[in-house]
């Protein structure tokens, strides 16, 4: 198997059907982010602004075909929050892949230099976070510009090849 085949298998096996949402731990969040460059959006059920922006993120995932987008719901008890998260994402376009992970502010800060949801990160092909957008200033317009920036990065051929 080639690296690309293994990568595609890893990402597709983690993608849940619309009736389910995959509960993942932080190492898996980082693994998915590293193997699926694009935009990762962190949100929480208790953060009204992050829930409201989720539909914008889903629309952007539909708009930018070249951009992989994933939404990670953060909760103290991911297993218990699965039903509530599903009710939020049920009507969203299927182009946005959803996961739910334990709420861990220390990991969010250490791994992505983010303080709290709502937050979005552009992940490079190398798995390294390139740009971040978070907090009260996160608006649909700023998310749109952020997605355009991410799409431009993802369609630019890697240097040195």
Structural commentary:
The chain is 46% helix and 20% strand. With 161 residues, it is α/β, with parallel strands linked by helices. The chain has one domain (28-155): Glutaredoxin, CATH 3.40.30.10. The chain has a six-stranded mixed β-sheet, with helices on both faces. It is globular. It starts with a helix and ends in a 6-residue tail after the last helix. 35% of the residues are buried.
Briefly, what CATH class?
Alpha Beta
Shape: globular
Mean pLDDT: 79
Termini separation comes to 22 Å
The SSE order reads HEHEHEHEHEEH
The total of beta strands comes to 6
* CATH A-level architecture: 3-Layer(aba) Sandwich
- What topology, given as strand order, has the largest sheet? 1-4-3-2-5-6
Unreliable spans: 1-18
- Relative helix content: 40-55%
Percent of residues in beta strands? Answer: 15-25%
Q: What count of domains describes the coordinates? A: 1
**Radius of gyration over alpha carbons?**
15 Å
